[in-house]
């Protein structure tokens, strides 16, 4: 007997209601997520990673005391756009031309991203701060497609890139709050290198915009997002991407001269204070106990040996190199996760992880199972979950067998266990200071990081079979579209 149309409609409404309720129930079991990404902060800057740091960081230190420090966490690449692309997509940035970011969106329209995965399982997703993964630009008086709200975020307030890369203007969702119709002259600081201090480039700027106001403005916006979410059942994912302590170093008066590391240290202190305001807002919203807070930096600092000698502060924390380098300081980042009652307080993990792993971790955390969807075969091709490390519970997800990176100048690196191989000479980044590096006939560099974290002893000549094995694995990772599909070859 045919079912009456009204009954069919009623059944459909009931089914949709059940499905919606199930989705809310699934979301309610997931924590809020606040991801705080600072810019150009070194492994040796936070006091909790370097007891000899000349920069007080009480708020970052409080996260470490209440959560887990990761001592072997790596940016997807040692430069801003590389790092952020991998964080959002779970894909190694050397798989695409990331150099086109100034005019084109790097992330494809249908690509699964960290925010889109979370949005699709019920999260409210918001971003505040520095995007630096490109928009499809056609003038700043027109919409800017391809940015955060087209790649998984429900809302965005921020800037297109760093506060030393013009044009300078705020963006709300897809539109400039005010186009950069005015101009600003270049600036540098005496007593520092040309790319340090209160350095910014000449170019367009929005009328009335002050670069010194960007950091507190983003903090206020992030706090407003949290405040507006208080009391909701829906989980929140808030990504706060501070453009600091990247240049220009512009500490407010209350921080000027307060650190032992000059303008840079003072500005890093200000960043720590901004993080403190966000943590206090979580407390005020009664969200702290239900929130996974992750703090990290996008790549290494611009801090020279002369700066170490001058201030007695080692921003690298004993690592070799600086921003853009294949050496550890370029990409090994201070990282902390706090989730009360789930992540053990005052704990430490030495698990090797990468920013590209955030996507698979979110997938396992929320039960989204996008990696099991046969229609989404290109999801997070280089991403491996580290949820088990956070929770201390067994994980059935694939685990990372090795880690590949590309330096700012294209020097390829592979890490397997304690061994790290760099396929060429030099740093492959800012430390090379104009040297050619990476000759075709180079034997490369091999370091045992368990014995030589500072990468001072190149043992490439002592382990030819291991070098060949690492070269082969690196080539396989580059040739395949998905390193998740490769089987690790044990070190020989």
Describe it for me?
- It is a single chain.
- The chain has 492 residues and is of the alpha/beta class.
- Helix content is 26%, strand content 16%.
- The chain contains 11 helices and 17 strands.
- The strands form 3 sheets. Strands 1, 2, 3, 4, 5, 6, 9, 10, 11, 12 and 13 form an 11-stranded mixed sheet that branches. Strands 14-15-16-17 form a 4-stranded antiparallel sheet, with helices on one face.
- The model is unreliable at 1-28 and 488-492 (pLDDT under 50).
Can you tag this structure with a few keywords?
11-stranded mixed β-sheet; 4-stranded antiparallel β-sheet; 11 helices; disordered N terminus; disordered C terminus
What's the short story on this structure?
This protein is α/β, with parallel strands linked by helices. 26% of the residues lie in helices and 16% in strands. The radius of gyration is 23 Å and the shape is globular.
